[in-house]
Amino acid sequence: MKEFANLLLAVCAFAVAACNQPVKEGSSAAAVDTTAERVVIEKQVSDLTAALLSGSRDSLNNLTSDNLSYGHSNGDMQTKSGFVDSLATGNWGFNQINIADQQVVNIDGNTAIVRQKLYGEAQNKGKDPAKLALGVLMVWKKEGDKWLLYARQAFKLLSPNDVPSVK
Question: Which letter does DSSP use for residue 141 in this model?
Answer without folding.
Answer: E
